Q: What sequence folds into this?
């Protein structure tokens, strides 16, 4: 079983839609949860991070962590064509390298 | 504006050649990483370093080596390139409190072995 599972999509939505991206994981020791965004031919960039369980909001983006279910989500409200990218979840136990999901490719159609 | 630089951006090379992928960062980060990324697949950790003269192996380390002689420089070497090495290689660095700031990635080196 892979440590982190993420549906690779692709996902195509109309502009203005609410997007939900999800990951599940198997290692209960994971404490730090991140979402990265990667544009074509670029390296990933940090979008959101969350420690342990709970919600975090930043503008149109909301990250949720449910440690009891080993499930994390990223919500994008009022999606824009500029949000078209690959979104990768990542997590670790603290002072260990991040473990990444496969990434979900999102296209927002104007 | 990138603070972590990878060269070359693209490389096509023949089987059996020795290659070194360069990675440099100007942020003074102690921690540096190499990941391999194939389309639709996870980033796989190849090697990482938590400081000068300190290197550790990741999941895909068996066919490559790294060195960390200077804080800012973390090159990856493939002694004998094979077609199975064709992939994108991403270098990243992080500050001690990386859970606050995450990793800073370079733009990657896309390697093709023919």
A:
């Amino acid at each position: 079983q892979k440590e982190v599972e993420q549906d690779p999509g692709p996902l195509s939505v109309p502009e203005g839609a609410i997007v939900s991206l999800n990951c599940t994981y198997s290692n209960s020791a994971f404490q730090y949860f991140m979402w990265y965004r990667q544009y074509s031919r670029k390296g990933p960039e940090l979008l959101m991070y969350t420690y342990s369980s709970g919600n975090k909001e930043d503008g149109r983006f909301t990250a949720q962590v449910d440690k009891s279910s080993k499930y994390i989500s990223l919500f994008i409200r009022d999606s824009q064509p500029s949000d078209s990218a690959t979104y990768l979840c990542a997590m670790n136990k603290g002072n260990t390298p991040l473990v990444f999901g496969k990434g979900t490719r999102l296209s927002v159609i104007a | 504006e990138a603070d972590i630089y990878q060269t070359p951006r693209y490389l096509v090379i023949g089987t059996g050649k020795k290659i070194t992928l360069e990675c440099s960062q100007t942020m003074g980060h102690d921690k540096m990483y190499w990941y391999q990324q194939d389309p639709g697949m996870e980033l796989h950790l190849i090697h990482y370093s938590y400081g000068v003269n300190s290197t550790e192996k990741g999941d895909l380390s068996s066919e490559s080596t790294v060195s960390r002689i200077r804080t800012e420089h973390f090159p990856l070497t493939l002694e004998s390139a094979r077609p199975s090495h064709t992939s994108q290689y991403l270098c990243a660095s992080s500050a001690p409190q990386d859970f606050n700031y995450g990793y800073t990635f370079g733009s990657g080196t896309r390697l093709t072995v023919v």
About this structure: DSSP finds one helix and eleven strands in chain B. Residues 15 and 71 of chain B are 31 Å apart (CA to CA). Chain B touches chain A through 21 residues (CB under 8 Å). The two ends of chain B are 33 Å apart (CA to CA).
